[in-house]
Amino acid sequence: MGSFSIWHWLIVLAVVLLLFGRGKIPELMGDVAKGIKNFKQGMNEPEETDVASSKTIDNETGEQVKSTKKTTKL
């Protein structure tokens, strides 16, 4: 009872086919493949793009802080 037999897997497969149909499963697998491909591309991108975007965020927040200090003087 601890492991699944072939009959368990056949029942699971039949339920999945009934729920999703034959046409939907290839679409789902294609979407999964695209997601994996995009993830791998994201992992291979250089870190420089992340550093540049973080610098612009720091500059923007720095400017916001300066403007806030100017407006809150009594």
How much β-strand is present in the residues? Answer: under 5%
> What percent of the residues sit in helical stretches (DSSP H or I)?
over 70%
For the largest beta-sheet, the strand count, sense and barrel status come to:
none
Mean pLDDT: 75
Topology order in helix (H) and strand (E) letters: HH
Q: Overall 3D geometry? A: elongated
Low-confidence stretches: none
Tell me the distance between the termini: 76 Å
Count all strands and give the number: 0
Subcellular location: Cell membrane
Membrane topology: Single-pass membrane protein
GO biological process, one term: protein transport by the Tat complex
Family: Belongs to the TatA/E family.
Structure report:
- The protein has helices at 6-44, 48-71.
- By secondary structure, it is an all-alpha fold.
- It has a domain at 1-45.
- The model has no long low-confidence stretch (mean pLDDT 75).
Question: Key terms for this structure?
Answer:
74 residues; mainly alpha; 2 helices
